[in-house]
Amino acid sequence: MAITSITAWLNTSNLNFTRGRLLYEQYGDNRLVLAVIKSGSGFYHFSKLHAAMLKLNEKKYLEPKQIVYTPPVQEESAHAELWGSTHR
């Protein structure tokens, strides 16, 4: 049974790399593919992502991974620690 969001991504006329990468991160399990698609977004990376998504779409039982939210680092406080009180 194909996952609707993966099928929809594959069938769209304007494939979005970021959306595809996020879907693969949620449903894919190939560490090599994950490493490749996280290392860039050029033609090579896109072709690897597309091929991996086609394979995922053929699988019968896909379980999504849990999505873990990591809050962004507050850069203001990080810079304050670096500069300390000498630049006030």
How would you sum up this structure, described in words?
This protein is an all-alpha fold. The chain has one domain. 59% of the residues lie in helices and 0% in strands. It is built from five helices and no strands. The protein has helices spanning 4-11, 17-27, 31-38, 43-58, 75-83. Helix 2 (17-27) crosses helix 4 (43-58) and helix 3 runs antiparallel to helix 4. The longest helix is centred in the middle third of the chain and has 16 residues, at 43-58. It is globular. The protein starts with a helix and ends in a 5-residue tail after the last helix. The mean pLDDT is 84.
What is the number of helical segments per DSSP (H or I, 4+ residues)?
A: 5
Strand-and-helix sequence, N→C? HHHHH
Oligomer: single chain
Estimate the strand proportion.
under 5%
Q: Based on CA inertia axes, which overall geometry fits?
A: globular
Helix content: 55-70%
Key traits:
globular; 5 helices; mainly alpha; 88 residues
How are the secondary structure elements laid out?
Layout: H1 4-11, H2 17-27, H3 31-38, H4 43-58, H5 75-83
Helix pairs in contact: 2-4, 3-4
Quick description:
This protein is mostly helical and about 90 residues long. The chain is built from 5 helices and no strands.
